[in-house]
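call fold(seq) -> tokens
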Amino acid sequence: MKPVRTLWQKLKAMAATDEPEHLRRGRLGERAAKVFLQKQGMKFMAANFRSSRGEIDLIFRAGSTTGDVFAGNGTDCLVFVEVKTRSSEQWARPAAAVNARKKRLISATAMDYVRLLPDPRVKLRFDIVEVLLADGEVSEVRHLPNTFMLSRPFRHG
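ret:
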């Protein structure tokens, strides 16, 4: 015999499995960005890298590489990607949400990632990928490479 569940128990069970819409959209956008960048020839390294200072949506390697080792020919770089997913551009471009504070947090988190590498002497690049949705589906992906520089105090000058 099946136990009888109250309405409250049913609602709690639904809430535990239902993901908030903004998180679902974000995951959808990150998947679309990952596929898009891989088709551009970039090598996927990590997703949702977290440190005590923040999170980076996607990390890729771009340039001339051999195997899992940087070729060292000056064209290799790590690409830290911030993905912004929106269902409308009515108010502003999705990339406009990456303000100075967000850039500082991404820079700090990127440095935390670089410190984990066996040889942290690599070039870095910060890209933004805008993902636009229509009716809950990806309608457009825009890659904005080299959108901002490493923020102070992590860069010289």
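Residues 42 and 62 are 5 Å apart (CA to CA).
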